[in-house]
Design a protein that fits this description.
By secondary structure, the chain is mostly helical. It is built from five helices and two strands, in the order αααββαα. α2 packs across α3. Bound molecules: zinc ion.
């Protein structure tokens, strides 16, 4: 299984496309079923942003939000999916170890 298929399959399992246009989920499903390469370039462009997720950063009591600019992708994204309770609140490795 390619990394894209693993990610989209994990995203679908997490209901990460809730609130997105229905076409987003169907393209992601297509990527899982047929492979990411089976999507047209226009379809790939729709779901491509989901292959990376901006870190939510951490906000400790009495401190400012750390404004983390890291993004999570590839294996880290799958690991984040497995560890995180929901799609929201994903954090990069450094934020996870800091909190
Ligand atoms: Zn972070």
């Amino acid at each position: 299984m390619t990394i894209e298929r693993e990610i989209f399959s994990a995203l679908i399992a997490q209901n990460a496309f809730q609130g997105e246009k229905p076409s987003v989920q169907s393209f992601a499903q297509l990527a899982v079923d047929k492979g990411f390469r089976a999507l047209s370039s226009r379809q790939q462009a729709v779901v491509n942003p989901f292959l990376k997720k901006q870190c939510e950063g951490i906000k400790e009591p009495n401190k400012k939000h750390n404004n983390c600019q890291n993004s999570i992708g590839g294996r880290d994204l799958i690991a984040a999916l497995e560890k995180s309770e929901s799609y929201k609140g994903w954090r990069c490795e450094s934020c996870r170890s800091a909190s």
